[in-house]
Design a protein that fits this description.
This protein has helices at residues 13-20, 67-70, 86-92; strands at 25-26, 28-34, 37-43, 47-51, 54-61, 76-80, 105-107, 113-115, 120-132, 135-147, 156-158, 161-163. The protein is mainly beta. The model has no long low-confidence stretch (mean pLDDT 87).
């Protein structure tokens, strides 16, 4: 049985969210030290873009109240979250003043904040921002990278929930 797609249909936002949710993605923390305090958020739209120059991207809602603060920092930290970080991810979506209460983190001299036990972490600067509907796609240029030595698994966001990868 085949399904036929109809063009120019009314694309209901709930239907789109459900359809987008069928694609699993990893989760990252994007953070910086602003006015002496860690500021950050979790994002599930992270992807590698280029090796030369080294670029990654993250897509953030234009309604984000955190992004305007983060973009003030000269450097941003990106941490790839591990499968034990579901609670950390929830904290990064919670009240701004308590997002880092129970999280071990480090900061660079340039202000990039990374989580201490992530799978990988990057020190980045904003390369370009591209308006994209109700989101902004932020291209980040990498200046440093750290990869954890263990073989832990990533935190996976799928169908509006967190999960883990099964060994293939």
């Amino acid at each position: 049985m085949s399904t036929h797609l109809t063009t120019n249909q009314d694309l209901d936002p709930r239907l789109l969210r459900d359809a987008f949710g069928t694609f699993p993605s990893g989760v990252v923390a994007l953070a910086a030290e602003i006015d002496g305090q860690p500021v950050g958020l979790a994002a599930s739209s992270f992807t590698s873009v280029s090796l030369d120059p080294p670029l990654v991207s993250v897509s953030l809602a234009t309604s984000s109240k955190t992004w305007p603060d983060l973009r003030r920092s000269s450097h941003l930290g990106v941490t790839v979250l591990a499968d034990h970080h579901a609670e950390v991810c929830r904290a990064l979506a919670g009240p701004v003043e308590h997002r880092f209460d129970a999280i071990a983190w480090s900061t660079t001299t340039e202000g990039a904040v990374t989580l201490d036990d992530g799978l990988a972490s990057f020190d980045c600067t904003i390369y370009r921002e591209v308006e994209a509907g109700d989101h902004v796609v932020v291209l980040l240029e990498l200046h440093a990278v750290h990869r954890a030595e263990d073989n832990a698994h990533p935190l996976v966001f799928h169908r509006s929930g967190f999960g883990t990868l099964r060994t293939l």
